Amino acid sequence: MSSSNFLPAKKPTFYYIGVSTTKSSIMRVFPKWAEYLGIGNTQFVGNDCKIHDKPEVYRTIVNYIKKDNNSLGALVTSHKIDLYDAAKDLFDNVDSYTELLGELSCISKRNGKLWAHAKDPITSGLSLESFIPLNHWKKTKAEICIIGAGGASLALTTYIMENLNEDNRPSKIYILNRSKPRLDKMKLIHNNINPGINVEYICSPDSEKNDEIVNALIPRSLVINGTGLGKDAPGSPLTDNVQFPMNGFVWDYNYRGDLYFLKQAKSQQIKKKLQIEDGWVYFLHGWTRVIAEVFHINIPTSGPKFEEISKIALKVR
């Protein structure tokens, strides 16, 4: 499917709107999932757009999905803000997170109405809770350091601020980013939802400064790579001299690429007793939450069925 050639879909169709969709493992994973979930008659189509594409390109895509009877919906990556900004008037309804964050990751239809959903606060929260022990923040008073102030980091902090109980929140969150505008945008949104968590926004253009913050974290704290380094570009936002927190958690939103950030953590894993996580579970939740929404089916977020979905994906990863 190209943005310049939109023919009526001949069968139920689900779209993936991204940048280089044919290179994504989801193109191999989705047909296997569809068969398992009972939606195997669905056509899965990638639609590549340029980063910050022209508004009319986004509007054409959304308008096509809205009007085509066999077009069921879409998952959106890389264009979440730009697509919503360009086409927000075409949606009949938006969910609360889309309204708060000004972006979408999912397009669906309900009773003939076109919906915009921002699923990332939900999927990032599910991913976090999959490896952080129950009542961890309450028991440890540990901190979180997030390097990168992009959409995934905004989603995760939104989840933390809106969903964690008052007695089970990190004692402090550090958010580091190379440029100030994204920090300012994040702070503006946080001002509307932060229940009182201590958050420090730090403009940090170099890895050595990032090291300083990570080195000072208290034991059992969480360090997150929320940058594209290790996936979109080689490397890490930290130097090889960084010292991860004792008994800490290290999480990279990415699950493919050189993942050098995780290699740095693995070099200290035994000495520092680190628990290390990549972005694979985030990938699973990100896609399954959208599939559940678009196809109006129940997909558990844990348990035997979710484990089977994970196994299916791993076989063709």
Helices, strands, pairings?
Elements: E1 13-18, H1 26-37, E2 43-48, H2 55-67, E3 71-76, H3 80-87, E4 93-94, H4 96-101, E5 106-110, E6 113-117, H5 120-129, H6 136-140, E7 144-147, H7 151-163, E8 173-177, H8 180-193, E9 199-203, H9 207-215, E10 222-225, E11 249-252, H10 260-266, H11 269-272, E12 275-277, H12 280-295, H13 304-316
Helix pairs in contact: 1-13, 2-3, 5-7, 5-12
Q: What does the model show?
A:
With 317 residues, this protein is α/β, with parallel strands linked by helices. The protein has two domains: 13-118 and 283-316, Leucine Dehydrogenase, chain A, domain 1 (Rossmann fold, 3-Layer(aba) Sandwich), CATH 3.40.50.10860; 122-278, 3-Layer(aba) Sandwich (Rossmann fold), CATH 3.40.50.720. The chain has helices spanning 26-37, 55-67, 80-87, 96-101, 120-129, 136-140, 151-163, 180-193, 207-215, 260-266, 269-272, 280-295, 304-316; strands at residues 13-18, 43-48, 71-76, 93-94, 106-110, 113-117, 144-147, 173-177, 199-203, 222-225, 249-252, 275-277. Strands 2-1-3-5-6-4 form a six-stranded mixed sheet, with helices on both faces. Helix 1 links the parallel strand 1 and strand 2 (43-48).
Features:
317 residues; alpha/beta; Rossmann fold; 2 domains; 41% helix
